[in-house]
Amino acid sequence: MRYSWLDDYLMDKPAVTKDFKIEWNWIRYFIGGKMFAAVLLDKESKPYYINLKLEPLEGDFWRTQYEDIVPGYYSNKQHWNSIKPDGTVPDELLKELLDKSYELVFRGLSKKKQQETLITTYCGLDCTGCEWREPCNCNGCVSSKGFPFHCKEKACPIASCAINRDIIFCGMCKDFPCQLLIDYSCDKEHGDTPSGARIETCRLIKSLLKK
User: Fold this and answer.
1) What string of DSSP letters covers 32-89?
2) In what order do the strands lie in the sheet with 69-71?
3) How confident is the model over 111-130, as pLDDT tens digits?
4) Distances from the Cα of 39 to the Cαs of 1, 36, 55, 170, 203, in angstroms?
5) Is the peptide bond before 194 cis (omega within 30 degrees of 0)?
6) Burial class (CB in 10 A: 0-12, 13-18, 19+), 168
């Protein structure tokens, strides 16, 4: 498959999970428990289609522009589209279509589900794929009221600040991004990779919740 970046690109989106549907031989990507993309594999585990969801009129348009975009294989052909993994669809266009599929499926969730799906921490960290989540029975600082697994006796100062200000997460704060969040996000030893990643995630979450 020429789109070798696809898995990393999708898994970098907030709150995305994936599984492997062995009966179909599909790698499926979800937001809020709803599939928004899939890589369809043949018997030799080689991709033969990438499925994604678009508004019907937009899907129709892109099918007329590229012969490598066809009605969704084994999917609702009005809403789903299949893209050949070794075709001529430009990388940037495929990223744009995957973004639209992610947002389209996300917008189909209830407002409550949207918030619960995206906001597991106050600071913007994505707990969805955290390796400590199940072993430590931790669902993030929002559900634990500021006490994720690594905070035993004292609440996380960012969580405490957000709770005291009565905001659902840092991206909604009038002082965002404050120095406290910047220090945590950009700390050279314990901060984000890349530096400042959670700040950008806060911006993205805010934009998604506003749509």
Assistant:
1) TTEEEEEEEE-TTS-EEEEEEE--HHHHHHHHHH-TTEEEPTTS-TTTEEEE-TTSS-
2) 16-21, 26-31, 34-41, 47-53, 80-83, 69-71
3) 999 999 999 899 988 887 77
4) 10, 11, 20, 34, 28
5) yes
6) middle
Separation between Cα atoms, residue 93 and residue 120, nearest integer Å: 30
Q: How many helices (H) and strands (E) does the chain have?
A: 7, 6
**What does the pLDDT look like over 148-192, one tens digit per residue?**
888 888 889 999 999 999 999 999 999 999 999 999 899 888 788
The residue type at 157: P
Cβ-Cβ contacts under 8 Å for 3 (sequence gap 6 or more)? 50, 85, 91, 94
149 Cβ contact partners less than 8 Å away, ≥ 6 residues apart: 132, 136, 137, 138
Residues 6+ apart with CB under 8 A from 124: 169, 170, 171, 185, 198, 199, 200, 201, 202, 205
Structure tokens that stand for 166 in this block: 């009565």
Entry pTM: 0.85
Strand 80-83 to strand 47-53: parallel, antiparallel, or no bridges (unpaired)?
antiparallel
Distance CA 18, CA 20 (A): 7
For residue 154, the 8-state DSSP code is S
